[in-house]
Amino acid sequence: MFVTVTEGIHKLVVKFPKGMGEINSYLIKGAHGYTVIDTGTNSKEAKGTWNDVLDKGIPIEKIVLTHTHQDHIGLAKWFQQVHEIPVYVSDYSYQEMKCRRETNTKKKLACLVRKHGVSNFPEKSENESDIYNFEPNGIFTKDENIKLGDEKYETIWTPGHAWDHFCFYQRNKQLMIIGDHILKDVSPVIGLWTGEEANPLKEYFNSLFLLTNYPTTIALPGHGDPIYHLSDRIEELRKRHVTRLKQVFASVKDEAKTAHQVCYEIYGTTNIILILSSFMATLTRLLYLESMDKVRREEVDGKVTFKAI
User: Fold this and answer.
1) What is the average pLDDT across 122-138?
2) CA-based, 20 to 30 A from 236: which of 71, 120, 137, 160?
3) How do 87-90 and 138-140 pair as beta strands?
4) In a domain? residue 274
């Protein structure tokens, strides 16, 4: 059931339908039980995995979340209210939780993607606001020390993939729990999942640079295998984004296009359900280029196009 990734830390792969299909939850051993990092989605499959853990008498002291995307926070409320296990989130994650309780983010997301050229986004989708409808037992902030298991970890705010994303760094071991900020084999999606325009790619670049200040022997991501050469992977991701930015810029160099049109040119499909992540990556790159005065938008009849300046 568990894979030992380093002394005192075990990985549990929690599988579920939809999305990425699985997540790495990390169990960090402590004198009073395990600290669990991230939970999986609110699904019967994920609950079944965790029930197997709990049925074996494995003690869980607390849940700590890297960020509030559904595959990471999905079972936090279940752990707290059904199994009486405390849940800890960052102050930024708490803000996100309250926002997702009180606003229809799915409707805002639909409006956003239609504004940027998508015509076939579904009118209705599953309402998952209930997973955010609980009060955390504790709040941590950036640049403080928190106890995971029996050791102290530094909290590093790394917005980009998610505005509220945090990494946890154990300086003596040069070990980082890195969530979805950096993955070994794929590029984390930079999106606008709350349906509001922002510049997350700029934040992501800043967060990548920030992590170069933390010597890391092993990084434990939310999906996939551990990363043993973090600085090399950071540079790979930076170069990949630069290459994609050049592609996006070239696409709108001579003609104004919507983000959906640019996405189709680069990724080759119009199925927004299959390619929503690629669409988001394209849109956030256009917004980044706009912030750098490389492209200019025009809005006509509620549709936005971008063209190189």
Assistant:
1) 83
2) 71
3) parallel
4) no
